Model the fold of this input.
Amino acid sequence: MSRLRIFADDAPDVPRLATSDVAELAAELAVIGVGFEQWDASQPVQPGDAPDTIMAAYRADIDRLVEANGFRSIDVVSISPDNEQCEVMRAKFLEEHFHKEDEVRFFVAGSGLFTLHVDDKVFEVLCEAGDLIAVPDRMTHWFDMGPEPSFVAIRFFTEADGWVGHFTGTDIATRFPRYEVGAARA
Done:
């Protein structure tokens, strides 16, 4: 179940708000400029399906998003626990960073934990199958796919180098729950 928890950035153990209500979750994120939607597939899909099959199942929503935002590239990424590089891939974005374009991800299957740092608040968003999150460019955040990552996601890009992480050098991400704790509290 998708979930949002909001913390003070100096109080990682006590959320100010916790909700799994999708309308409330989307409204709270909209206040800080983050988009959140849920999509339904037009045909059945599952992990292991070809990228073209997966994108065909969500074609209407993909086309709407591309038209509205001018995305130039879309791909499908699939990560499973047996991937030899999963520890390296997990570690890559566990520190606070930002991108120079919006980070837009749709979860076809599985889940991931986006944690956004805005002013003096931390917004922890557990995204699961059917969830789309759109993090605005330059918003500081970190992403945790968990110790045994398992997800399929559609990614949207404007520029080839837009997904490069620019790290802030702070330790804030180390003070907040990781996927295995954050997801367990869902």
User: Anything to note?
Assistant: The mean pLDDT is 94. The chain has one domain: 3-182.
